[in-house]
Specification:
By secondary structure, the protein is mostly helical. Helices cover 37% and strands 9% of the residues.
Length: 127
């Protein structure tokens, strides 16, 4: 997932701040955050994944964001390796609050393709 244009490069501080803004919700101590805060945390975490993970082999989708994807060039109808989950699950994974295996066992992740599970090796994104 190389070739990220400079204007889209996420600095670690940006990601930490975005995830911190929704942390009380992830902890169960607050209501759902503002849509803009939630979208920023998801978008920045997916962009970060795109920066650190090599290649363009897995697309990560986090609806309802319009094709929020770590794959820099989404393909229609889709690549053979796709991970899809909801915003809360994705952010819990990205922040290290949930393990991939636990999310998969609970049915909170849909992963298709032989390489989809490789995403787990790049998590957490925020330490």
């Amino acid at each position: 997932m190389t070739g990220v244009p400079p204007r889209h490069v996420v600095r670690p501080q940006q990601l930490v701040a975005a995830v911190a803004a929704v942390a009380p919700w992830l902890d169960g101590a607050a209501d759902t955050p503002a849509r803009s805060e939630l979208a920023a945390a998801v978008r920045l975490s997916l962009r970060t994944l795109g920066q650190v993970a090599p290649g363009r082999t897995v697309e990560v989708r986090v609806p309802p964001s319009p094709l929020c994807s770590a794959s820099p060039v989404p393909s229609i109808p889709g690549p053979p390796n796709v991970v899809e989950t909801d915003p809360r699950t994705w952010l819990e994974l990205a922040a290290g609050r949930l393990l991939w295996a636990d999310a998969a066992a609970a049915g909170r992740i849909t992963a298709s393709g032989t390489r989809a599970g490789e995403v787990a090796g790049w998590l957490p994104l925020v330490r």
